[in-house]
Amino acid sequence: MKRNATAIVGAAESTNMGKLPNMSQIQIHADSALNALADCGLTINDIDGVATAGHNAVELAHYMGITPTWVDGTSVGGCSFMLHVRHAAAAIEAGLCTTALITHGESGRHWIGRHGSPIFPSLFQMQFEQPYGVSRPPTMFTIPVMRYMADYGLTEEQLASVAVVQREWAGFHPRASFRDPITVDDVLGSKMICYPFRLLMCCLVTDGGGALIMTSAERAKDFPNKPVYIRGTGESAETPLISQMADFTSSQAFRVAGATAFENAGISHGDVDHLMIYDAFAHLPLYGLEDLGFVGRGEAGAFIADGNTRPGGQLPLNTNGGGLSYMHSGMYGMYALQEGVRQMRGTSPAQIKDAEISVVHGVGGMFAASGTIVMSNVT
Amino acid sequence: MSSDGRVIPTPTPETQHYWDGAKIGELRLQSCNSCGKVYFPPRPFCPECGSRDVVVMKASGRGRLFSYVINHLPTPGFEPPFAIAVVELDEGPRLMSNIVGCPQTPEALKIDMPLEVTFETLNDEITLPQFKPAS
Fold first, then answer.
1. What range does the domain containing A94 cover?
2. What is the CATH number of the domain that holds A237?
3. Are A143 and B77 a contacting pair at CB < 8 A?
4. Which CATH architecture has domain B61-135?
5. Residue of B nearest to A133 (CA)
6. pLDDT at A94
7. Of all helices (H) and strands (E), which one includes residue A198?
8. B135–chain A nearest CA distance, Å
9. What residue segments make up the domains of chain B, in order of their start?
10. Residue A75: CB partners within 8 Å, gap ≥ 6?
11. pLDDT grade, residue B3 (50/70/90)?
């Protein structure tokens, strides 16, 4: 994919987030989309491409009154929106559409106008995993971690420190769900969910949405906001079965998506000013840091516990507080992308000074899929 | 699904041999005659090389505790807390299991501890392979 050929020109989250007892899922999509249109000064008539996940992309187009020439319903879990950004960049470059709208809306807490999981069910999982009592994500996503702890000596305290550091970042954000500081003892003392995972190591369950509008880099210069260029992208997939993940200490999908995006963007790790790694649970940033190559295998626990990713640290990570503290409607990837855009525009409440390159890395399912986006405010 | 809400497997034509084996007390894997790969879950071709020249084989039933969690969430058909584990078989493939016949505590469940297969009858059609500490 050509570097910096497309850009995000419109970006917004839903008007309200957290508890939305009076809004159905499709309206959360629409609310977010209308906010993103207002953000960039476009109208619905300017949109000719639509993408969404966890909801029928056709219903999105009809509900919004869009007649698209490009439709993408890729729905592989929380990183679907990273894949949509990648696919939209390719579609705009190929002339399949000129202006793409990517929406996320999820009634994750209230389940209003929502049906089932956003991911296709796996027949293998129903036969070979569910009979053993796995159900919700905390009972699946966490399973590889005891192997990681045994192989690399990761401690429960280091795992807890991920949540502590991210709460520090959330403190900057008025819209974050939880902002009060917490300690390692608070995390370890919170309710046991699925040993070794306590409540504060698990993501929130909230309602909310977000939307992005993309167009060609050439047109992007004419918009009110600083263009956020798509410099590089990657995607991959491994397995819908957590028990069949090839390496319990490393995600194949992370490694492939990350390396592809870095190579596409022509960057090395030292070029990255800001990093988002989808954190459905506290171990995700550890796998992400190692699989993207920021630290060596087994080093991420100490790297975070030592403060390298906290405010003022050398590698600002999950600066909105992440799925652990900011919000998590079920498919958090959109909120990671929104914080990447804010950082590149210079408008984040936790702004990293002079940041020029942001890497936003997502997971889908339980290490099942992955997407990585490298954004920049310079070409 | 059983009356207590527990998920009961529904075999497909490609996986029927696995469930037929469990019913008579055999843990079954498949191996590839072209490349030698032993694999799971079942399918009528090799996921390593794509060959259709594969056979069903009886596994030793021995393995080790590769990783696990102890689930404290309410779960239909189970009494929390209970372990959800992944077992690595001596033949190589890994599969999910509960660990039966021992306390469901971090002290009793040690990573890499040797395990052996046992079978849990769920109904007239389905018997589920399970693992317990090796004798």
1. 6-114+204-376
2. 3.40.47.10
3. no
4. Beta Barrel (2.40)
5. B75
6. 98
7. strand A197-198
8. 22
9. 11-59, 61-135
10. A53, A54, A118, A119, A120
11. confident
